Amino acid sequence: MLYIGCHMSVSNGFYAMGVQSREIGANTFAFFTRNPRGSSAKEINPSDVRKFLDISGNFGKLVAHAPYTMNPCSADEKTRIFARNAMADDLKRMEYTPDNYYNFHPGSHVKQGAEIGIKLIAQQLNEVLTPQQSTIVLLETMAGKGSEVGRNFEEIRAIIDRVELKEKIGVCLDTCHIWDGGYDIVNNPDGVMEEFDRIIGLDRLKAVHLNDSLNPCGSHKDRHAKIGEGHIGADALVKFINRPEIKGLPVILETPNDMDGYAREIKFLRENYSD
User: CB atoms < 10 A from the CB of 54, how many?
Assistant: First the structure.
């Protein structure tokens, strides 16, 4: 089964996101838990969530996304406090739609060094994760621009190693990010996935952001492209989602599209997917 979708606007409510997903051929979706460039969070309507749950029986795992402003390894203490409080609040809100995923960018160490960044990220996770939560928190693989943490599999693993409740942690693999980070999924996809398994473990891989890239491999720039309009190419991305390690995982498109564009990409990927 191919569980595929794109980012939806949570301001419309969960039921509307579910309906719109079905209209474009999707059976999962992503949504920002709060303003992606700010701090405000829309109040959740329990009756709206119940309506969504009634129609979501064939949906795959949802992949919520933390705001871009959340930086748990910032050099600024106020920024770290916001990150901790926002994540803790988001994880409580995620229980309205239990047993799904909460994805976040690990953050930028801002000249403190990766080791300090890794320590601070793990510290936040140890402060907010609880044994009772049903949500799995996903570390997203990053392209390595600036002082980003998570630029390679080793940094992701280093964070996981420091987390106490490891059963609450997984990884979201972004195809544009790892490509821009130097992992050649076009010419050596087997090697990339073997390296992921050796360093992180395939049991940690819970979701995929499927994006083409405007830049060549190893550029460390993080510029998404529509499927087939970048340096990765449609053939490589189709082969990637057909890999046994990816089958059954939620695949989220973050390509620069409107809803009609997402519908075309979903149709194309379904037509080239082998169950």
Answer: 10
pTM above 0.90, yes or no: yes
| Strand, coil or helix: 61 | coil
Q: How many Å apart are CA 67 and CA 44, to the nearest integer?
A: 17
pLDDT tens sequence across 205-255: 999 999 999 999 999 999 999 999 999 999 999 999 999 999 999 999 999
**What's the mean pLDDT in 192-209?**
98
Residue 45, classed as helix, strand or coil, is: coil
Which residue type, as a one-letter code, is found at position 226? Answer: K
The DSSP annotation for 94-118 comes to: HTTS-S-EEEE---B-TTS-HHHHH
Furthest-apart CA pair in the chain: how many Å? 49
C-alpha dihedral (181, 183, 186, 187), degrees to nearest 10: 140
